[in-house]
Amino acid sequence: MVARDPHRFVNELDDATVQRLIDRLESRAKDKVFTRLFEKYAAQLNLLASTQVLEAGCGTGAIIRLLAQSSDFSGKAFGVDQSPAFIDAARRFAQQEGVGDRVEFRVGDAHKLDFSDGVFDVAIAHTLISHVTEPATILRELARAVRPGGTVVIFDGDYASLTYAFPDHDLGHRMDVALVSATFNNPMVMRDLPRLLPDLGLKMTAAWGDALVEIGNGSYFKSFAETYAPSVTRAGLLLAETVEAWLTAQRQSMENGTFFASCNYCTYLARRI
User: How far is the first Cα of the chain from the last one, in angstroms, to the nearest whole number?
Assistant: First the structure.
């Protein structure tokens, strides 16, 4: 079998697996360990009352719902995702949270956005380009969709750094690699952006990295492991009993306060030239 990024091929998954991804995206958006990274770049966007924001690959719309709920935002936000199930969930959650009048969701392909040139002030790719077929095509589309001088935000993990503690270091490393292979189509793409952005009509204006680390107990990495470990088994990268033993060990380490997991995340702010 071949590892297939579940987000890249979400429209080919069974309903139960899609629901597990929806649950993951929503739990992640409520986890302050992770959302502080969004808040860090959102604070630098200088949003005005008339600001038009696009998020490509919006999933369940969790990120732009957070933006719409902010006291600093009174513009309009649009979310696009290839998954009708994700978009249905996004619309439902937006209504439940009272921001349905400020956000609009559409089914679409981020490789070919159905928007005119230069209609947005800000375009966001939040944990998108690690999953897609052609990252450069996505970024070129985001650059096209924002006005000259507009901002493109790219936030994602450098997933080659993803690691969980495990007593057998060799097996732990193999599980780390298997998790990354089964979950991300482009696990090291964030390392390429300084080289790629100028050729896509974008000038980097700021960039930084953050280490997301949980020690003793886990919330963000707990959800990650439980959501994506089954993909390792489906891809045939490790035996099912090996994966289950690893998961059991992670749960036990959270219960007894010996848990450790980490991953580096990068943020780029770029201006359309």
Answer: 43
Query: Is there a domain that residue 5 lies in?
Result: no
Domain boundaries, position 178: 10-272
% the chain with pLDDT above 90 = 91
Beta-carbon contacts of 226 under 8 Å, excluding residues fewer than 6 positions away, are: 247
For residue 142 the two structure tokens come to: 């985001």
Burial string for 108-147 (b: 16+ CB within 10 Å, else e) reads bbbeebebeeebbbbbbbbbbbbbbeebbbbbbbbbbbbe
Q: Quick check: 156 and 128 in contact, CB under 8 A?
A: yes
Dihedral of the alpha carbons of 250, 38, 113, 117, in degrees to the nearest 10: -160
pLDDT in tens, 65-80: 999 887 677 889 999 9
Average of per-residue pLDDT across 167-174: 98
CATH of the domain at 263: 3.40.50.150
Local structure of 157: helix, strand or coil: strand
Q: What is the pTM of this model?
A: 0.96
R_g of the chain, CA atoms, integer Å: 18
Diameter over CA atoms, the chain? 54
Distance CA 109, CA 213 (A): 32
Sheet holding 202-216, edge to edge: 103-107, 76-81, 52-56, 120-126, 146-164, 259-272, 202-216
Closest CA to 72 of 42, 92, 101: 42
